[in-house]
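Listing 4. Sequential folding, example run.
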Amino acid sequence: MTATRPDTRPGLRRRLATGSRAATADAWLVSRRRSGADLGLLALSAALLAVTVFLALLVPRLVLRSADHAVHEAVRSAGIGADVLVQVPGQTSISTTRDPNIASEAAGNAEEMSTNLPPTLRSVLGAPLTSIVTRPSVASGRDKDGTSHAVSTRLVYVPGQESQVRWVQGVAPASPPPPADDAATDGDGVSLDDPTVEGSAVDAPDHVIEVGVEQRAAAHLGLKPGTELWLQLPSRGQVDVRITGLYTAVDPSAPAWSDLSDLLAAGPAPDKGLQGRIAMLLTDESLPDMELWIDGRSFTEQQRFPVVADAIDSSETHAVEHDVRRVVAAPALVLPGQVSPPLVSTSLGDVLAAQDVRQAAANAQQSVLEVGLAAAGALALVLAARLLVTRRQTYLLAERARGASTVSVAVRALVESVPLVVVAAGVGAGAAWLVLPDARGSWSIAALVAVVAVLAPAVLAVLQVRTAWSGRRLPANRADRQRVLGRQRARRITAEATLVLLALGALVSVQRRGLLEAQTNGVDLLLAATPVLLAGAATVVVLHVMPPVLRTLSRWAAGARGVVPVVSTARASRAAGTAVPIMTLTVAVALMVFCGTTVVSVRHGQEVASQAVVVADVRVDGTIDPTAVERLRAQPDVTIAAAGRLWARSLGSGSALTADVDAVDAAPLAAILRAHGRPVDARLESLARPAAGNHVPTLISPSLATSAARVAPELSSGGGTVHLDVLGTTRAFPRLDSVRPVGGAQPANGEVLVDRATIDRASANPADRSKWVADTPPSATTITTVWVDGPGAAAAVHAAGLDHAEGVTVTTRTTWLAAVRDQPLSAALVWLLLGTALVLAAYAAMALVLTVVATSGERGRTLSALRTLGLDARTARAMTFGELAPLAVAALVAGSVIGIGVPWQLTRSLGLDVATGLAGTTTFTVTWLPIAAAVVVVLVSLAVAVAVESAVRRRDRLGEVLRVGER
């Protein structure tokens, strides 16, 4: 017979129930009583938490809202090029039957395309704009009065003309009436008048398509109702266009005319001998005639889906870009079943891709500031909790002496902190929603701050009572005691070394790959916390450096006169061992200096970018006549003007190397660069002096150095082939990006810098011209960029009429700089840095105040004792200031080093080019302003806190303080 084991589960449940009751008994009543006693400090902690949560939620929303504005602005700037254009090529048809449903078929295609577009892309596109357009051709003829006409034209059909145009003269185009007599047909019903049929009655009958012309364009070109022109397009026989009416657009700015400007006004003729360029309007009635008589390969059906810029959010750019790439790569998805697949073209994908890069950089910068703000706020909350526990130390130790467990102490602290944190965090979140209602953004950092606010009072209270009465004691044996203390030191050193190594690892990682996580294209919070980690590592260094420094000061104070140095250095040694106040101040100061240094670097980078792009006071881009340059140079208050041109060339016959050739006025350009204090390559002016054999001196980019050493480079110009005499390599090339070829151009292998006049002379020299172009007259380099410098540069450009010339863009350095600084992401980053610096200054002041209050009890007993010996209030304030000054100075030094070192090491990794407007222009710039601002904030806060504490201590009764001690 086996013995049965007694059931221990009821006893275990009783013990658990007893322990639970012991841990939670009267927790609510005790917490409520304590909260009433420390209501002011709890209100301060709640306000601090609410502000921190508010900032943690508001900062990313501000960046996202700025990114939204940046996307909208970028898409609007792209114009109609960002619209999704679907072109359905026409097919050759052998049908001789007029199809009156071609307009409705185009409308059906538009509806089908809208349905087949990917949903994300479709959500940001407007209703399609349908048009049927022929390729450009020449229409010529003679009126009855003998007036000759020859214009470049194309036929265009736009639906819905009833509400878009108003016919002011003549009538709207329609189908021309049939011939008066019936056309002869054969037995199969085929018209004998068809010129495509052998043996037709008329060898070349005329086919007429009725069209309309814009009223002012017609007057400009001398066209009128009744004018009939022969259209030179592949067709079934001779086709004439007959102008039946003149119209005006009801709303010239309507989207239907966005890419059909030649329907609204006449333009310059593309070739000599033509009067101008104009489009002729087809209607629903005349469109079938065009489709019948014109070869189908000569016209295209176009469906333009306009982009609704405001419908694209920054969080959707990647998805929209993916859909755009998909549609462009597989256009058959849009309109399946076609013999020839449609062609889809849009620049929207490129625009959004460029914006994604800018937004990624902005997110990285925002993450650094957000983590820094949260860290400073969390440390300030820890300081507030530390002060709260210090004020309750007597009660906590009494509870522990009466047998309270550490669990019960933690539970009572949590009962108090949890409702307070919930309310404060809710207030902060609600305020963020009221200021900027947006569901986007991460709650993780705000949640971490709330968790710190919940746990800090409980953890600090448990640490306060953990060793009281029942704590672990050191052995009496010296060797054992040293071994225990050695293990404690080893754990502390290990933790400190881990923090330092983690900070250094984060720094190295950010330097190598930036703040963006490569696999997810998101921000790595560990790397975003690099400045905070480095500030923590600096705190560790300060904690090890301050004791010997203070011992040295104590030895000096022992020989000094007065009691202030002795007492201050003695008490400072004790205050210096507190890590949390030093770390809080160090983090706040480091990020303050970081923000200030970054703002200065960004502003300086914007100045550098404006000088690199505009070069002079005014830059003019476009095809410019050389006489205009001479007129600019002759204008008053114009110091100098330089001209240039950029074009792509192959470096030698049979060579696979290509180069962007910068042909500039070398000497004037060098003078402009010197006038603006920019570095000038000493060999730049040498480009204007021809080398031996009349070769062209040149400077090349380093990427071409190896190839130029192997093969003598040469360029094919308008007059022939010229040989290049390479003087060396340089990186100081003028920026001519605005006139670079775009749209499928292959990137060049490097850049070549030559003098414009020198290469023109070399092209005109018969000895340097190729034999197969020996009879070709050389031509001067076409000027596409002019740099004008001087106080009257803008007025001179205006006087020359260049600011109103067609195809010419005038940019001043001040307007370019203002435009860059007003860009949404640039402005948001600068204001965010400045706002963060102000908030961190408040955190630093709060940390100092909390530190002064937390150490006021013991300091008050010391000062009260000294007051009984005759210590005056002024000396007491000096002692308090001297006690806390080393802590403040150490935090200022460590924070300033981190605040300057982080942007110095991470200038490239932070992606600050998003705010400068030009890649490679952000340079680390040091200024004393951020450090001075941090010093002023810390010293003023410390002085105010000392003065307030002195005023409070003045009301203390010395006898009670000495008898009772700390209250």
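-- end of first protein; second protein begins --
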Amino acid sequence: MLMQTHEARLKALREELKRRDLAGFIVPISDEHMSEYVGDYAQRLHWLTGFGGSAGFAAVTLTGAAIFVDGRYTVQVKGQVDNALFEYRNIPRDSLADWLKGAAQNGERVAYDPWLHTPGWVDRLERGLEGSGVELVPAEGNPIDAVWADQPEPSPAQAIVHENTLAGRSSADKRGEVADWLAKEGFDAVVVPALDSVAWLLNIRGSDVSHTPVSHAYVIAHADGHAELFIAPGKVTPELAQHLGNAVTVRDRDEFEGALGTMKGKRVSVDPDFGVAGIAQALRAGGASAAFRQDPTILAKAIKNEAEQQGHRDAQAADGAAVSRFLHWIEVNAPRGEVDELSAAAKLEAFRREHGDLRDTSFDTISAASGHAALPHYRVDEDSNITIPPGSIFLCDSGGQYPAGTTDITRTVWVGPGEPTAEIKDRFTRVLKGHIQIDRAIFPQGTNGGQLDSFARQYLWEAGVDYAHGTGHGVGSFLGVHEGPQRIAKHAGGQAGTGQELFAGMILSNEPGYYKPDAFGIRIENLVLTVPKHIEGAEGEWLGFETLTFVPIDRRLIEPALLTDTEIDWLDAYHAKVREIVAPRLSGEDLAWLERETQPLRG
């Protein structure tokens, strides 16, 4: 029987917990690969609670329930989750362990799905529960799956070959590099659980997950260069099998856990961020030694080779033409009061499909009008959708997945009639100044992203304001739009990736912003490629950035008096490059608009 209400679903889960002699269960937004985006079959938190955000979790006991979200979702959760069923809890202020201590009794067992959490998460929660008498135990099969009668099946889509001309390296070459790493580190094998790492290592792609072109699969790579691919048989075409060759054994994905149990006496590396607790538990149960080390494909994947770099440039050129046409369309139509957030996002996707081999958007488009633009991670839906008000800010953060590369761009524009206020122009110009400082940065080899972050914030800090998100994240090559290990953000010692040294070949976003609650938001985002920089007489190796994204920046929002001559020169040179790259792809009124919008700021 299908359960239509969240109250009925919560009741069914509690009955299942009683049947298993469990006092509680923890429900994350996660899959077996710790993916950023998960398939419909893994949307257990949404099914149980109605919450549609991308981060959070719930804890359910026989008598209580709570949903935990961070500051991005404190408004959204209240609109989607019934507080008569779930208490609202804030991360990081509220502790799951503390909540469980009050909701469960001494001697009771609270379960988690070991295939949806990392070993580190399990260890931290166990330490938090010490002395409470509450026992944390792995569930044998997910209890939500037992009561979710119409749970979608995992995607049946076939995996496809990612050609070497786009990848820039053969899979055999990459597997050889991994084998060398295993030998050097003294491991017999490494488990590769992250879907984008599997895709990169084997030069395959798929369509199992929205926004990220991957297939559900695992790899075990061995020190002799041989690899085992665990994937549903229906996903493997003759072309894929031929591409993989004899050095890759294809096995049913259902055999993966059993295979982990056959590695007795072997020393196996597992990534601590993407390898779930179930992997480590299966290895240890089979007599293997599990050591937690970063997956060796992660850093290699982040450093793009020449073919991948050129692919990004090609994808960005097509994307730039599409986004430029979209901004022209917004300028013409939005002042009439005829465009809403949803129709704007749909129009942008349509332009992208006209200009490139678009396979998917790289994330849900942030199409944010007026006060919605003040929410950095806003996601428009039928309930939140509003018309873009004439005389206001419109912010659009979007991207595309093309076989040649992955794009991500934010433009903030003024929708007439009228002129932006002095406050809006001041904040926009300070964001632009920070953006320019990142783009022009030159730094010694060994610098990490955390050390660059304040370059982007300094002009906002001068005005006593800041922004709460990072300044930049890594980007994949026809893979994840958020790709580690590098990033540009505060707290180099406290946020994953900010302490990662930057290397030539890494691609990052450059996206400072400013957000005034309930009023407006500003963000300017381009992608940049880390490249060597030659300095006459320099000591050591130096790096800087090459801009990859070329779309006009709205000059109506700029206060020229706040810009230095150097910054004006940068903007004029940037717009000249936009004309050079994008103009050949446009015609008619779109071309005339581009030529007007890229005129020098200096009269």
